[in-house]
Design brief:
This protein is of the alpha+beta class. The chain has four domains: 121 residues, Topoisomerase II, domain 5, CATH 3.90.199.10; 77 residues, 2-Layer Sandwich (Gyrase A, domain 2); 127 residues, Topoisomerase, domain 3 (Orthogonal Bundle), CATH 1.10.268; 236 residues, 6 Propeller (Neuraminidase). Helices cover 33% and strands 23% of the residues. The strands form ten sheets. Strands 14-9-8-17 form a four-stranded mixed β-sheet. Helix 7 runs antiparallel to helix 17, helix 11 crosses helix 14 and helix 11 packs antiparallel against helix 16. The longest helix is centred in the middle third of the chain and has 41 residues. It is elongated and about 155 Å long.
Length: 707
């Protein structure tokens, strides 16, 4: 528990000033090194000095610094002005240079991070060994907590704060300082990121984040189409991804055949900025391809918000309004402390000058007292009694140089008394009024906007402008024929290929189990002997020729040991039924819709009933007449419309054929598959029925077809 609390409070979760302890220690060290106005120094020097406050090692300190630099590009408003290679936010593999090669100093925005820190605006505490003091928080002049992004994983909780445009944040804070119920969406449009890209604006999602501090939104890459070279150039990508992640996923899609329009891909990023180039094949529509890549690669990515912030040492998930309110309270306290500091200084100065004015009446007397006092220790008491001044005033007068004990010098000093009194009255008036303090904050925020305000980097696009593209739109639509063998080999052959060569290659002891003609956009459902159903998209199965064995299903479906596929059905719209015939004579008619899932699940357990062994499976589009055979040559022709459909996949069904004791149902066939023609002899109007024995004239042909 102490470790968990330490990680939450002292490491992973940012505080209201927008910094984690590691950031604060680093920046404060640079401030004390006078890097806010001086020249850049080697990063190694800063890292070494920071270890006086941060004991976690030089590697961790330098990594913290890298993210805060202008060169890395992770922040909208970097705190560290850098020289050298600091890697790149959009790159996973680009390594930053060692600290001995890079140079840093504080960026100009840090003037408004540390501006009042020497005026007792924040609390200071001992460092880890008690040899130095460090600030608990930094007196940020603007709500940095929302301006720069922050992520952290603690124990049992995490924090993920997106960045917003500085100008929008300051304007929103001003609006809330004037009216606590101000509409946030009028000034704070949406998050803004240093990597640019485009934000898909869904009003309800953004409002949810503003109100609760939780939610997500989508970012997508920006691209240009170079018509001359027939290539797409991606110039901005989502903040949450990297160039390498996009390239890896694209390569995977190209290798699997899901993307066929790209002929080459290059990372052309240089000092001028990011560029990822896709060379296109002739005739490719770039917009359609990008819609496909947005769907299947990190070119479109989500940012999940979790505004978890430490307030007074305790974590709280806050909405934007609550965060700005907490920051305003923090800033009000900083300003009060600063005003009290200034007030004490001015009162002390006024007190000294009032003592100085008293000796103006008789300078010669003051000089005489100092000159004629024999003991040095008696100078101060003699001045105090002669001019009725206190110890502090007497000390000040006694320390004045002899050359300054003239009327001109003293009168110049006394001119400041009226100014000081006026300034003290102003400070007192401000301190006594919350409205006046809020006005001070508003003026400071307006100055921040003038100094550092920038246009948005992330473009906002409406959700209505996004064309929803289904993966099916990119699937080539052509007719194929699917073949399944007893030994679980699967073939997908185009009709054109079958016309050229139709002779199927099979293993010597293998034979064809079933076959279907269907569209390349169809789904395949495989029924196994372990009561499972496996689903695959037909377009994901590679085409083959009749002269090859085909794909081995256990490799494609990740089946259980000793599991075997006993039947296959293909469908485009999940219409029709699966008819399960069990050895006990019962049959279950299950709508194919029962096997349809909203998610892309590959495996469905409990595909059919386990109460009796499965004799046969058949896929039927609509009710029809079928012929059932038992193992003792009894035959029954029945209509499936007599069998009620059951939505529950594991249904036992209803009794159709009543088997004779000791016999079982062997198989069901369509009427086209049997050789006899006298259907009325075997037909029944009602079920269940016992059926009739095969006539001698029908036995030979049927047995040959059956066995």
């Amino acid at each position: 528990m102490p470790y968990a609390m330490s990680v939450i409070v002292s490491r992973a979760i940012p505080e209201i000033d927008g910094f984690k302890p590691s950031h604060r220690k680093l920046l404060y060290t640079m401030y004390k090194m006078n890097l806010i106005s001086g020249q850049r120094t080697k990063s190694s020097n800063v890292v070494g000095q920071t270890m006086k406050l941060n004991p976690h090692g030089d590697g961790a300190i330098y990594e913290t610094m890298v993210r805060l630099t202008r060169g890395n590009g992770a922040l909208l408003h970097p705190f560290v002005d850098s020289k050298g290679n600091f890697g790149m936010q959009q790159s996973r593999d680009m390594a930053y240079a060692a600290p001995r090669y890079t140079e840093v100093k504080l960026d100009s925005i840090c003037n408004d991070i540390f501006g009042d820190i020497d005026k007792n605006t924040v609390e200071f505490v001992d460092n880890y060994d008690g040899t130095m003091k460090e600030p608990l928080l930094l007196p940020t002049t603007f709500p940095n907590i929302l301006v720069n992004p922050n992520q952290g994983i603690a124990v049992g909780m995490a924090s993920c704060i997106c960045s917003f445009n500085l100008k929008e944040v300051c304007e929103t804070t001003i609006a809330l300082l004037k009216d606590e119920k101000a509409d946030l969406t009028k000034t704070l449009i949406a998050p803004d990121f240093s990597t640019g890209a485009m934000l898909i604006y869904r009003e309800q999602d953004i409002l949810n984040i503003y109100e609760t501090g939780r939610g997500s939104f989508k970012l997508r890459a920006k691209y240009n189409y170079d018509k001359k070279n027939n290539c797409i150039e991606v110039t901005e990508i989502p903040y949450t991804t990297t160039v390498e992640a996009i390239m890896d996923k694209t390569v995977e899609l190209v290798k699997s055949g899901k993307v066929r329009e790209i002929s080459d891909m290059r990372d052309e990023t240089d000092l001028s900025g990011l560029k990822l180039t896709f060379d296109l094949k002739r005739g490719t529509d770039p917009d359609k391809l990008m819609a496909k890549l947005y769907k299947q690669t990190p070119l479109e990515d989500s940012f999940a918000c979790n505004f978890n912030i430490l307030i007074d040492g305790a974590p709280h998930v806050l909405g934007v309004r609550e965060i700005l309110k907490e920051w305003s309270n923090f800033r009000i306290e900083c300003i009060k402390r600063r005003l009290n500091f200034d007030l004490d200084k001015k009162n002390a100065r006024l007190h000294l000058l009032e003592g100085l004015r008293k000796i103006l009446l008789d300078i010669d007397k003051a000089i005489s007292i100092i000159r004629n006092t024999e003991m040095e220790s008696q100078v101060i008491p003699n001045l105090m009694s002669a001019f009725e001044i206190d110890l502090i005033q007497a000390e000040y007068i006694a320390e004045i140089k002899l050359r300054h004990l003239n009327k001109e010098y003293i009168l110049k000093r006394l001119e400041d008394i009226d100014t000081l009194r006026s300034e003290i009255e102003d400070i007192m008036r401000t301190l006594s009024s919350d409205v006046a303090i809020r006005r001070v904050i508003i003026n400071e925020l307006k100055d921040i906007i003038k100094k550092y305000g920038k246009e948005r980097k992330t473009q906002i696009i409406s959700d209505d402008d996004i064309i929803e593209v289904n993966e099916e739109q990119f699937i080539e639509d052509y007719q194929v024929k699917m073949f399944l063998t007893e030994q679980n080999y699967l073939k997908k052959i185009t009709l054109a290929s079958l016309k050229v060569a139709s002779e199927q290659k099979l293993k010597d002891d293998d034979k064809m189990l079933c076959s279907f003609e269907c569209s390349n956009k169809s789904d395949a459902i495989f029924i196994s002997n372990k009561y499972n159903a496996y689903k695959m998209k037909i377009h994901e199965i590679p085409n083959c020729k009749a002269s090859v064995l085909g794909e081995y299903l256990p490799n494609l479906l990740d089946m259980e040991p000793d599991e075997k596929i006993v039947y296959m059905a293909v469908t485009l719209d999940y219409s029709g039924f699966l008819l399960f015939c069990f050895e006990n004579g019962k049959m279950a008619k299950i709508p194919l819709k029962s096997y349809e899932t909203k998610t892309n699940r590959k495996k469905l357990t409990g595909a059919y009933s386990e109460k009796s062994p499965l004799a046969s499976v058949m896929f039927i589009q609509k009710d029809c007449e079928l012929c059932a055979f038992s193992n003792i040559n009894k035959v029954l022709i029945f209509n499936t419309e007599k069998i009620p459909e059951k939505a529950t996949r594991s249904s036992q069904g209803v009794q159709v054929m009543t088997p004779k004791k000791g016999s079982v149902i062997a198989k069901i066939l369509t009427l086209d598959e049997v050789t006899f023609t006298d259907f009325d002899y075997y037909r029944t109007k009602n079920i269940p029925a016992r059926g009739a024995y095969l006539k001698d004239d029908d036995t030979q042909g049927t047995q040959l077809s059956l066995f």
